[in-house]
Automatic annotation (TrEMBL):
The chain holds residues 41 to 309 of 908 of the full protein. It comes from the Eukaryota. It is found in: Endomembrane system. It comes from Rhynchospora pubera. Cytokinin receptor related to bacterial two-component regulators. Functions as a histidine kinase and transmits the stress signal to a downstream MAPK cascade. Residues 50-262 form the CHASE domain. This is histidine kinase.
Length: 269
């Protein structure tokens, strides 16, 4: 009887963890798909129309009205690729200067990725060169070289200082053939559409809706480097007592990154 009840407790942990992992992964995938559609919106209305049929006001309005489609993102934005020789003309047309993430006028760089359209919830990144932040820069370079959606490792986001990850889709000036080279992709890059998953507050919100009885502690890790897991969500504290844990796999859609969820009971069962 005792062995049976221990088994039940363990099965309970497995099913609660799997349920949470599936829910998080699904919400994540829904948000990524909608950002993909926004990248196509920018391509269609900014680049395939002459003159461009998109402006900040339209982008802000559309992204506010469709925010429910992206439940785990704090906001989305579009950063345009600007090479140095175009900087002066670009700044004159915009009426502002490109700034670094520290809000200083940008020093000279080969190229920049200033935000020209933003959802109001992240308006603080407007005019900022997203290549001036290490994590965002790596994302931009990998997105445009692969043509795919990419994720950063977890870091502290601008604005909230919450732990999260940034998602980036590349936008190209024209449709690319399937067999184009990496150099051709980079050359055809128009900009980057992306947003931040505020994992610390939005995942908390999601998991608290599922608060179970008995309570469990949920942690999410970036385990891309298996020997050095990076905490993405949850208390990064040593566990109070040795208790069995269950690890559920997570797939956030970027094959370059690996994630998992680790669950354990918060109290001795
Ligand atoms: N968006 C919101 N908060 C952030 C952030 C970000 N990046 N980076 C740090 N805090 C416009 O990849 C292009 C969004 C970056 C996209």
């Amino acid at each position: 009887i005792r062995r049976q009840s221990i088994r039940n407790v363990e099965e309970g942990l497995v099913s609660m963890c799997e349920e949470r992992a599936r829910m998080l992964q699904d919400r994540f995938a829904v948000s990524v798909n909608h950002v993909h559609a926004l990248a196509i919106l920018v391509s269609t209305f900014h680049y395939q129309k002459e003159p461009a049929a998109l402006d900040q006001e339209t982008f802000a309005d559309y992204t506010a009205r469709t925010a429910f489609e992206r439940p785990l993102l704090n906001g989305v934005a579009y950063a345009q690729r600007v090479v140095h020789t175009q900087r002066e003309l670009f700044e004159m047309q915009q009426g502002w200067v490109i700034r670094t993430m520290k809000r200083e006028p940008s020093p000279i760089q080969d190229e920049y990725a200033p935000v020209i359209y933003s959802q109001e919830t992240v308006s603080y990144i407007e005019a900022l060169d997203m290549m001036s932040g290490e994590e965002d820069r790596e994302n931009i370079l990998r997105a445009r070289a692969t043509g795919k959606a990419v994720l950063t490792s977890p870091f502290r986001l601008l604005g909230s200082n919450h732990l999260g990850v940034v998602l980036t889709f590349p936008v190209y000036r024209e449709d690319l053939a399937l067999d184009v080279t990496e150099e051709e992709r980079i050359e055809a890059t128009a900009g980057y559409l992306g947003g931040a998953f505020d994992v610390e507050s939005l995942v908390e919100n999601l998991l608290s809706q599922l608060a179970g009885n008995p309570e469990i502690i949920v942690k999410v890790y970036d385990v891309t480097n298996a020997s050095e897991p990076l905490i993405m969500y949850g208390p990064d504290l040593p566990d109070g007592f040795p208790s069995p844990s269950h690890t559920s796999m997570l797939d956030f859609g970027d094959p370059f990154r690996k994630h998992n969820m680790v669950c354990r009971y918060s109290k001795e069962p």
